[in-house]
Amino acid sequence: MTVQTARTEAVQEIISRPSRSVSYPKSESTSQPLPLSEFFGENVFTMAKMEKELPKPVYAEFKKQMEGGRTMTKQVADAIAHAVRVWAMNKGATHFTHWFQPQTDSTAEKHDSFLTIAYNTTSSGLEIKAIDAFSGSQLLQGEPDASSFPNGGMRATFEARGYTVWDTSSPMFVQEGPHGTKVLYIPTVFISYNGEALDEKTILLRSTEAISSAATRMLHLLGKSDVKRVFTTLGTEQEFFLVDRGLYALRPDLKICGRTMLGVVPPKHQQMEDHYFGRIPSRVLSTISEVELELWKLGVPVKTRHNEVAPAQFEMAPIFEEATIAVDHNLLTMDALHRVAHRHKLKVLFHEKPFKGVNGSGKHCNWSLCTDKGENLLDPTATPENNYQFLLFLVATLQGVYKFSGVLRAGISSASNEHRLGANEAPPGIISAFLGAQLSEVLDSIEQGRDYRPPAQHKVQTVKLGGTVLDLKIASLPAIARDLTDRNRTSPFAFTGNKFEFRAVGAKQSPSFPVSLLNAAVADGLVQVCDALEKKKGSKQVPSKEDILSVVKDFIVATKNIRFEGNGYSEEWVKEAEKRGLLNIRSAPVAFAQLLTPENKKMLTRTGVFTEDELESRYHVLIEKYTKDLLIEANTLKYMVQTNVLPAVFKYRRDLADGVTALEALKESAPEKKVLRTLSEWIEKTLTALDSLDTLVKQVNDLKEPEQQVEKASEFTQIFDKIRYIVDQMEHYVEDSIWPYPKYYELLFAA
């Protein structure tokens, strides 16, 4: 079968494909669909289930261990292991796995069965007996190969030992396995033989400890000594594309690189703005509904689903949770989308820019702080001008973002997110913070030492839910509550009601790394504000209102440059940001280097999020991955053009040449000659560009130092763009039936 025939058959198969049906959980008594609350988390070994299954003393000991009160004993570990094995096997589990997050933006797992062999010595020899068992030591610790995952040089090939260690803060759960069986998943961290972090989860846990310590110190200064812990909360809006799997299978670039290296945008794509929030295509809705069903059983509080801006682009979003759990749940969401889409003959694309010319995908991280008493520390309430606690946490956040914007830029950088950042649908590479008109006025009034004046749009008599009421002038419609702040989709770090939305994170990234860096930066900002407040209050038991406002004013002045209320896409902002001295980092390798600047390195090690060795390792992992990503793209592009595009163009050119010869023999004019000449010119340009690509690949591979390789690899983008432009011009000319790869209009409109 030729590629062209396969492309035609894939399109025809879409039309005749039967739909997939999945049974929704139903009540045994009424046969009606169950309310979500009745099966939510049924596949999770929650604390409530653990309390039910464990002896009370064992459960009490475990809770103390979770709170940092003591080390887990073998007796407690064995008891929990036995209880979770019985629970999991009752649900059909045959295997368990230590589930961890290596530095690959995905998860890793190795499955072991519960099967154990017992040997008895008899007069006739050894007697073998099969039993099911799961020990406390198996629960607590596993041993994957630490040299085969990205480690930045911390592990040599012959130094293979590493450990996965149970993360007791994240609940265990079961997921579907093959043939109706299930697998018990144990969330873990992943460390080297010497104890260094080789994963994303370890640094996230450290960063939450750092911010909790700094935030509780602040609250204790304000007289709230009953607060023992502060949690980072997170809600991750996940954007993605869904395309037909048959067409996807015919695109080597999508399969290998996650994005199209070639392709012409169709006449209609997103310019009519009719896809956003439009009716979800039936096959997509069926897929997402099944994903939701699996996630609800896993305790993932997925809340929202909708069409995104580009055709074939969608979004799912959860209710916010504690950040460490939210990250696990985001990775489970991505995994569920991948698996369920496969069942529906679809392919999910998480690449930040899979299709040139239409919007890319992000992962908007809605971030806030919450005490163990349930108080949101970034809730401005109805009168933020008088909420001094909120103002202190606000300026501390701005201080961290301003002082360590380079660190945050490094956290969102990758070869794939480079295609999105700064484009006309994504936040720019310049880190800035948006507060909205009302909070900006609050800070300005404090800075200028004057009374607060509500902005004009907020001068409404009635206040409701902390916002204002809009009069729609339509009698049949109720008054609606308006938030204190508008939304700014051009800002990479925007305040949205009672949280910040970190919009610049890439869709396929694990949220762990960028959120860990944000936590570390804000923790440092909190420490600076605490130091200033302690100095200001002197011997007083708690700081006075004047003390607080004085400190807040100092940090308002210090962080003013990071605040921007306008259009982050505009050229004017680029010029203004330069005047303010803000970083405008345009490439990932330059961003990665921010991790190792003296000031940033001190902060990341001072907060305890990284050791110096781990930070050096992380930098090398990032630059090596960047280089490898571009080399893979280069070789994929070369393969596609040489083995399919050029042969198709050659064939079409021969057909044209035969036609020209026949017409000239009949003494007819041959306008095909013009097309023939044009194709020949494009072919020559393509071959020249491919030679340049070959040369650059060789130059990168010949370099020995990763820093030299990544600098040279940055030149690939220009050659990619040149080859793509030429090939896309040929796609406009060549007969559709001859073109070897599924086109954009097929990929974007086939779901």
Descriptive account of the structure:
- With 751 residues, this protein is of the alpha+beta class.
- Among the domains are: 40-198, Ubiquitin-like (UB roll) (Roll); 625-748, Four Helix Bundle (Hemerythrin (Met), subunit A) (Up-down Bundle).
- It contains 24 helices and 21 strands.
- The strands form four sheets. Strands 10, 11, 12, 13, 14, 15, 16, 20 and 21 form a nine-stranded mixed sheet that branches. Strands 1, 2, 3, 6, 7, 8 and 9 form a seven-stranded mixed sheet that branches.
- A hairpin with a 5-residue loop joins strand 8 and strand 9 (182-192).
- Helix 4 (56-66) packs across helix 5, helix 20 (612-665) runs antiparallel to helix 21 (672-702) and helix 20 runs parallel beside helix 23 (716-733).
- The relative contact order is 0.11.
